């Protein structure tokens, strides 16, 4: 499996808007509808990536822990479904159901949203503050599928806590590592 790092979009970048269909809801969502009043976590994931599969339980726990505290959560899949049919919207809906994903899991068919966020891998995490400015981008934690480090979500949780409690986010921010986005 290829290990692709995040591109590390510049901090302070305003959240790019989108309007995408949700595989697990029968409607479209834009950024405004996904955002939380204290901040927003945008994730690029997919169904088949071993890096995503490795952390999906922690992703769901983070979403459940922080949505009630005012953090909006949304996941986006931008993979080419012609060459990777396991990432098609119907399979995304199944993946969401199997993993108890209760936040919007959106399909970016044109890949324009992934390009706007400069997303490179799955998983790729972007945390925006209440003003929709990027304050964190990078890894969830140091765990990877084969490195025997337990999944904790520590880097991402620390960043979200900093947003919630108006603290400085710890530097340096390490890029996420995962499978590359499957471009058309």
What does this structure look like?
The chain is an alpha+beta fold. The protein has one domain: Glutaredoxin (3-Layer(aba) Sandwich). The protein contains five helices and ten strands; from the N terminus they run βββαβαβαβαβββαβ. A five-stranded mixed beta sheet has the order 6-5-4-8-9. The longest helix is centred in the N-terminal third of the chain and has 18 residues, at 50-67.
Could you give a short description of this structure?
With 184 residues, the protein is α+β, with helices and mostly antiparallel strands.
The averaged pLDDT comes out at 96
Question: How do the helices and strands follow one another from N- to C-terminus?
Answer: EEEHEHEHEHEEEHE
Q: How many E-type strands?
A: 10
CATH superfamily, called what?
Answer: Glutaredoxin
CATH topology value: Glutaredoxin
Give start-end ranges of low-pLDDT stretches. none
- Give the overall shape: globular
Distance between the termini: 19 Å
Oligomerization status of the protein chains: single chain
- The number of distinct helices, counting runs of at least 4 residues, comes to 5
> If strands are numbered along the chain, what order do they take across the biggest sheet?
6-5-4-8-9
Estimated helix fraction? 25-40%
Radius of gyration: 15 Å
The CATH architecture name reads: 3-Layer(aba) Sandwich
Percent strand equals 15-25%
* The first-level CATH class name: Alpha Beta
Q: Number of folding domains?
A: 1
Walk me through the topology.
Elements: E1 4-5, E2 19-21, E3 28-30, H1 31-34, E4 39-44, H2 50-67, E5 71-77, H3 89-98, E6 105-107, H4 112-117, E7 121-122, E8 124-129, E9 134-138, H5 154-164, E10 177-180
Parallel strand pairs: 4-5, 5-6
Antiparallel strand pairs: 1-10, 2-3, 4-8, 7-10, 8-9
């Amino acid at each position: 499996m290829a290990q692709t790092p995040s591109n590390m979009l510049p901090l302070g970048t305003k959240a790019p808007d989108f309007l995408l269909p949700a595989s697990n809801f029968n409607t479209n969502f834009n950024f405004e509808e996904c955002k939380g009043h204290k901040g927003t976590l945008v994730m690029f994931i997919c169904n088949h990536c071993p890096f995503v599969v490795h952390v999906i339980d922690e992703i769901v726990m983070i979403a459940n822990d922080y949505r009630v505290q005012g953090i909006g959560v949304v996941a986006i899949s931008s993979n080419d479904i012609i060459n990777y049919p396991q990432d098609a919207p119907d399979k995304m809906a199944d993946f969401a159901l199997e993993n108890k994903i209760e936040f919007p899991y959106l399909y970016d068919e044109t890949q324009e949203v992934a390009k706007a966020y400069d997303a490179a891998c799955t998983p790729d995490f972007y945390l925006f503050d209440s003003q929709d400015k990027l304050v964190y981008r990078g890894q969830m934690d140091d765990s990877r599928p084969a490195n025997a480090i337990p999944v904790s979500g520590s880097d991402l949780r620390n960043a979200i806590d900093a947003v919630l409690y108006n603290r400085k986010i710890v530097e340096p921010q390490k890029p996420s590592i995962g499978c590359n986005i499957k471009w058309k």
